[in-house]
Amino acid sequence: MEKVKITQVKSMIDRTKRQKDTLVALGLGKINKSSQHTLTDQIKGMIGKVSHLVVVEEVK
Questions:
Q1: Residue 13: which residues within 8 A CB-CB, separation 6 or more?
Q2: DSSP-assigned beta bridge partners for residue 6
Q3: Which of 5, 12, 14, 49 is the most exposed, having the fewest neighbouring CB atoms within 10 Å of its CB?
Q4: b or e along 6-45 (b: 16 or more beta carbons within 10 Å of the residue's beta carbon)?
Q5: Using an 8 Å Cβ cutoff, are 3 and 56 in contact?
Q6: Residues 8/53, Cβ–Cβ less than 8 Å
Q7: Tens digits of per-residue pLDDT, 12-59?
Q8: What is the pTM of this model?
């Protein structure tokens, strides 16, 4: 399975509760915080919902 590094680049302030909860579920919550995940369909969906707040990089 492919691994990805997700980094939060924008603030959670003035975002919906659903977007805030998604960031917390991804292990984020502060700007420049990163987490690594195996790229599953569930993670892809979560990234899609907060794509305007995060940057995604492939981990080798």
A1: none
A2: 35, 56
A3: 14
A4: bebeeebeebeeeebebbeebebeeeeeeeebeeeeebee
A5: no
A6: yes
A7: 999 999 999 999 999 999 999 999 999 999 999 999 999 999 999 999
A8: 0.93
